[in-house]
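Justification of computing resources. Each target in the renewal requires a structure prediction run like the one illustrated here; the chain below, 296 residues long, is used simply to show the kind of job we budget for.
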Amino acid sequence: MKNGQLKPGYNLQIATNSQFVLSYNVYQNPTDTRTMVPFLTLIKETYGHLSEYIVADAGYGSEPNYMAIIDEFNRTPLITYGMFIKDKTNKYKSDIFNTQNWKYDEINDEFICPNHKRLGFKRYAYRYDKYGFRRDFKLYECDNCSECPLKNNCMKSNSKSNKKIMRNDNWEYFKAQINQKLSEPETKEIYNQRKIDVEPVFGFMKAILGFTRMSVRCINKVKRELGFVLMALNIRKVVAQRANYNQNNNEKGNFYIISIEIAFFHLSKNFMSQTVFLIKKIEVVMRTYHDLNIHT
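Resulting structure tokens:
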């Protein structure tokens, strides 16, 4: 990155439950936003269904992702958006020049600015992002801002146009839904569990296994290498869980271990089918080494 840091070439996505990796995939998108829909599609194809709640951090909070989760997957997103925390601060909510805090007249479809001037609806507009997703807006504009004493606080000082507001009702609806869900105790607790469920997996990879860089190139080889690493983490947790439950002689716990092993096998069967040739090569090398030892 020309600053002494490595520029990442692969974006690892994982789905976890109780710190067990149930599914994973590797992408070459620089951000997490564009990986969510294809990753959820992969999970659904693998397991046949998705969980009731899709939980992720703010890096996945976007209009296309909310729309896909609700409309296509028929699930409930528990995903914060970029301004979720800032929206709750007193400074943000008390800023009179923040258009999100302006009064809205539903009957006349108008916003009212701090100088009590009205910004009426003018027209519909839309924008396409670089990925082709269309966002629809409603444009509101003040009739005359030229003599407004608050103009320099509300707009750029050299602006010759009137104050405009671009409102995306679809995005505002999704934000309202997320705020409502994350204010409910049950769903809030589910969301808070995310940090202690998925983040330790990456910590184990780096701190315990010392896995901080790939040793191969090409996305298919990288995916296989990461598959070995994630299986090692799952096996490590299975062994730890089994030792704990065997010590306590907990039959219910042993059943839980069996269910985890089934999930682990389901996760690994496709991956192992791609790496059988590697295992065979290792076996050949080991037999050759053994023969050499016998003859020497």
